Amino acid sequence: MAGLRPFRPSGFRLETQQVGGKIVVHNYGHGGGGVTLSWGTAELAVQEIQPAGNKQYAVLGCGAVGLATARLLQQHGAQVTIYAKDLPPRTTSNIAGALFRPGTGFDPDRVAPAFFDRFDRAIHLSHRHFEAMIGERYGIRRLDNYFLGDQPLVDAEILVDARISDRIRDLYPQAAELAPDQHPFPARFASRHQNLLIEPPIYLNAMLDDFRRAGGTVTVRAFESMDAVLALPEPVIMNCTGLGAKTLFNDDELTPVKGQLTVLAPQPEVDYVAYQHDLYMIPRRDGILLGGTFERDNWTLEPDPSEKRRILEGHSKIFSQFRS
Ligand SMILES: Cc1cc2nc3c(=O)[nH]c(=O)nc-3n(C[C@H](O)[C@H](O)[C@H](O)COP(=O)(O)OP(=O)(O)OC[C@H]3O[C@@H](n4cnc5c(N)ncnc54)[C@H](O)[C@@H]3O)c2cc1C
Predict the structure, then answer these.
(1) How confident is the model at residue 150 (pLDDT cuts 50, 70, 90)?
(2) Is 30 a pocket residue for ligand 1 (Cβ < 6 Å)?
(3) Which of 7, 93, 100, 275 maximizes ligand 1 atoms within 8 Å of its Cβ, making it the mutation to test the pocket?
(4) 160 pLDDT above the threshold of 60
(5) What DSSP letter does each residue of 286-315 carry, written as one string?
(6) What homologous superfamily is domain 2-320 in, according to CATH?
(7) Is 262 in the pocket of ligand 1 (CB under 6 A)?
(8) How many CA atoms lie within 13 A of 269 on its CB side?
(9) DSSP state, residue 52
(10) Ligand 1 pocket check for 8: Cβ under 6 Å
(11) Is it true that the peptide bond before 102 is cis, omega within 30 degrees of 0?
(12) Rounded mean pLDDT of 1-17?
C-alpha cells in the first residue's frame, strides 16, 4: 500500500483569509509529520479565529488535522460540520505509522526563520494533547525507538535539523547513543529514545466517535472548486484538506511525497520501532509496517515492486543478523 504525504517545502500553511464574505483558515501541508503536528496546528488555527465570535464552523477534511481542528472547536462551544470527500479509513492519515516526530515536514533550506517558532509551538501543543490521550481508547502508547547507522545518530536522525533540534530535545529526554553491548542490532552505531506511537486506525475512529457524540455532523462531499466551498452556509471554513488543497485552493507549492509500506501479520511481542536511513519498522496492532520510501512529486498510489523488494530484503538483513 502507498500514501501521499502533503508536502510544502516552506512548511505547513497556517493562514487566515477573508474571501467571498467568508473567513477561511488554512491548516494543511504537514508532509510526513501531519499526525504529529495535528493538535498543535489545530490549536494555532483556532486561536486565529476565536475573536471572530462565530458559532457555526465548517471543517473541510476528516484526516488527523481536520478531526483535531473539529474537536477543538467543539470544546470551545462551536457547532461543527465536517465536510470531506473521504472519511477514515480512506484518508492519508490512516496510512501513517504514526510516530510522534517532526518527520519530513519541510525543506530546511526553504523555510522562513519565523516558521521554526510556529513549528516549536505546534509540536509542543500537540505533544501535550497526545500525552493526555495515551491508552487503549485512542491507540496511543510509548515505546522504544532504535536508530541504526554508520555514525552517531541522536541529533542527525531524531532532531532532524539544527535550527529545530534544541527546541524539541525536551520531547525526547532519554535519547542516547548505545554502546555495542547495549543492543543486538548489526549496526556500527545505535541510539534509543522513547516515543509515542499513535495508531491511526484506532485513533481516527475514536476521534470521529468523540466528534459525533459531541453533536458534530459529518457530510461526505467532494468539492471541485473554491466557489463551491464558499457557497457553504457556515461563515468560517477551516481548510484541512491535506494534498487536496493543491487544486482546491491553487497552492502550487504543495506536492506529494509518496510513501510505500509492506505490511506483515501482527506480532504483539514486537514492542519497539527500528529505523535505518531509508528503512523503518513500526509494530502497529493491525500489522508490522515496513517502510522507508520518500518519493517527491510522485502522484501514483501504485506500489513499486522494486521498492517492496528493497524494503523486504533490507529488513531481512537487519533482523536475520541479530547479535545475541
Ligand atoms: C507511508 C506514510 C507514513 C507516514 N508516517 C507518519 C508518521 O509516522 N508520523 C506522522 O506524524 N505523519 C506520518 N505521515 C504523514 C501523515 O500521514 C500526513 O501528514 C497526514 O495524514 C496529513 O493529515 P491531513 O489531515 O492533513 O490529511 P489527510 O489525512 O489526507 O486528510 C485530508 C482530508 O481532506 C479531504 N479532502 C481533500 N480534498 C478534498 C476535496 N476536494 N473535497 C472534500 N474533501 C477533500 C480528504 O477526503 C480527507 O478527509 C505518513 C504518511 C505516509 C504516506
Answers:
(1) confident
(2) yes
(3) 93
(4) no
(5) TEEEEE---EET----SPPHHHHHHHHHHH
(6) D-Amino Acid Oxidase, subunit A, domain 2 (3.30.9.10)
(7) no
(8) 0
(9) G
(10) no
(11) no
(12) 96
How is residue 165 annotated by DSSP?
A: H
Residue-wise over 156-169: b if at least 16 C-beta within 10 A, else e? bbbbbbeebbebbe
Paired residues of 22 in beta bridges: 19
Which stretches does DSSP call E strand in 121-251? 140-149, 176-178, 189-198, 217-220, 236-239
Chain segment 174-188, per-residue pLDDT in tens: 888 898 889 999 988
Q: What is the 3-state secondary structure (H, E, C) of 112-142?
A: CHHHHHHHHHHHHHHHHHHHHCCECCCCEEE
Q: Does the model's pTM come out above 0.85? A: yes
Say whether 20 sits in a helix, a strand or coil. Answer: coil
CA distance 282 to 296: 22
Counting residues of the chain whose pLDDT is more than 70, the rounded percentage is 96
- Among the listed residues 256, 212, 254, 196, the one whose alpha carbon sits nearest the alpha carbon of residue 62: 212
Query: The C-alpha cell of 246 is what?
Result: 493543491
Q: Which of 83, 87, 92 to mutate to test the pocket of ligand 1 (most atoms within 8 A of CB)?
A: 92
Handedness of CA 252, 90, 265, 299 (dihedral sign): negative
CA–centroid distance, residue 181 to ligand 1 (Å): 40
Grid cell 484538506 in the structure block, residue: 241
Of 36, 83, 241, the residue with max ligand 1 atoms within 8 A of its CB, to mutate for a pocket test, comes to: 241
Locate 42 and state its grid cell.
489545530
The answer, yes or no, to whether any atom of ligand 1 lies below 6 A from the CB of 14, is: no
Distance from Cα 310 to the centre of ligand 1, integer Å = 25
